[in-house]
Automatic annotation (TrEMBL), chains A, B, C:
InterPro entries linked: DNA_clamp_sf, Pr_cel_nuc_antig, Pr_cel_nuc_antig_C, Pr_cel_nuc_antig_CS, Pr_cel_nuc_antig_N
NCBIfam families attached to this UniProt entry: pcna (TIGR00590)
Protein name (Swiss-Prot/TrEMBL): DNA sliding clamp PCNA
Origin species: Blepharisma stoltei
Principal location listed in the UniProt entry: nucleus
UniProt domain Proliferating cell nuclear antigen PCNA C-terminal: residue ranges: 93-218
One Pfam family named in its UniProt record: PCNA_N
């Protein structure tokens, strides 16, 4: 099961993949694309208790998604019908991309860097060579950078792997990266992939599947 | 000692009763009704420390309520005069009402249902029969309901008792119920009483007394 | 190293003194006054991790302050250039003042009194004699006061010392005192010094130095 969402300005894309074998029960007779308001889905899912089992159901040609929540002792059950949206575009096929730089680092560390640098300005320059990744900003109040070196620690909150086949330096909007960074609660590690002129990819693996964000680089005119 | 307050639109009433024997000292020479701004009283009471003893005092024909806070070791004492309000109406005699449905359930559970359903729309339909209580909403984004069955667990955060002599189904404004639900920190249990066309009553018992809320049902034109 | 800042309306002054021997390394070839935006400095300092070592550097005739943060294991280093401000006035020589009343009390207690009394009105009257310190307010909703007596407890969160050579009673704006009270996280104790017609001084001692606030009294026309 894959969930895709794109922001209104079409610069950011998120893809959540949940492995079917991780569901207690999973049946899908034929591939189907449902248009769901993420905001409304999240309102309904909050009604479920932490220990509730959740079932999602949609018929062929479905106009509603049926959610059922059942408490452990079944003394409480909830059922909701969520109206589906008409999709303007079909499911996007994301092209598998080769990247010239791949950095795996602690997700909290990456989150902290993006959050704090956003205080200075919105555009971050991420530059990577074999030895170092550099996160730099320059704004009215001054300028500066954070440099990260590889660390082969076993601890996921210290480990940092840098694989670079070609120097790369690109600009991104921190306000998007900071939205993506909420995913750091799902995984200790984030894998950052970069190649000139293609969107950056941030990938978070977790038990049930993976969450992947794409963000188009800022080009000079945007800066 | 009984404290009553009604909201400006006169659809909600709260009655707090504190048992006189639970006070360290209690003297009331004759019944007296004082008009107090709850907001201002709460500002003053916050000045007291958690372990302070609080004394409240009002003379006959009082124009101020005198609050005294005294620290455990008496190295700190505070005294405040709170200006009283002129009351438009006298103390309301709340009529003892027979109800066709009485539900006792965990107060946190009731609070969570009201809070989450309020995300969908403001009008909740509470329907009860002998076997089940149903909390339902229907809004732009979809519709749904939470069903609660009786549970004779000994744990107050699971126990649920449903006594229904007649089917009942009524509509209420969730924004009020969610204000009332703050009282769930006073008691593990809430007793919900319903009868057609009379206000719902929510009752929270705690060591010092009881807190009771009344809310008029929504009629069709309000919905 | 001393940091001074004054509020825009020139009624409050803060002086932070850090003892040079408490730095790992400290070099200052000649006295120098740098104009720094506290807000911008604080944005940059937040980029540092809790365990990072921080170095501050400025050349003669400096136009930027250079901040370097280094992680424990040096796998992360950050360097920032903070643009300096042109100062309108030079370093202020704060005159050593004799005070007629000096009160040392728990900083959390003083903070709580100021915070809660601010709910009633903005002007606080602090009055001290040999036996008692009185914090009083009077507003639309009523009036009241908190009285503190000396307490020779050994516990810093109870101890209260009152040294008064002359009765004193002065008015201050609580909104400033409440800003100052954020310093209560630095020290368990606050020393309050009062003399008629001169600014109140609040002094917080901590391991690395001391933080001192001055606030001009409110005179009748302000009240």
């Amino acid at each position: 099961m894959t969930i895709q969402a794109m922001d209104a300005s079409h610069v950011a894309l998120v893809v959540l993949s949940l492995r079917s074998e991780k569901f207690e029960e999973y049946r899908c007779d034929r591939p189907q694309t449902l248009g769901i308001s993420i905001g409304n889905l999240s309102k309904l899912v909050k009604v479920a208790g932490n220990d509730d089992s959740i079932s999602l159901r949609a018929d062929d040609e479905a106009r509603v998604l049926i959610l059922t929540f059942r408490g452990k002792n079944s003394e409480r059950t909830s059922e909701f019908q969520l109206n589906l949206l008409t999709l303007e575009s079909e499911h996007l096929g994301v092209i598998d991309q080769e990247y010239v730089a791949e950095i795996t680092m602690p997700s909290l560390e990456f989150g902290r860097i993006c959050r704090e640098l956003a205080q200075i300005t919105d555009t971050i320059t991420i530059a990577a060579d074999k030895e170092i990744v550099n996160f730099a900003v320059s704004g009215d109040i001054g300028s500066g950078s954070v440099a990260i070196k590889p660390n082969d620690s076993d601890k996921p909150d210290e480990k940092c792997i840098i694989k670079v086949s070609e120097l790369v330096s690109m600009n991104f909007a921190l306000r998007y990266l900071n939205l993506f960074n909420k995913a750091s609660m799902l995984s200790n590690e984030v894998s950052i992939s970069l190649s000139p002129e293609v969107p950056i990819s941030l990938q978070y693996e977790f038990e049930l599947g993976e969450l992947r964000y794409y963000l188009a680089p800022k080009i000079a005119e945007d800066a």
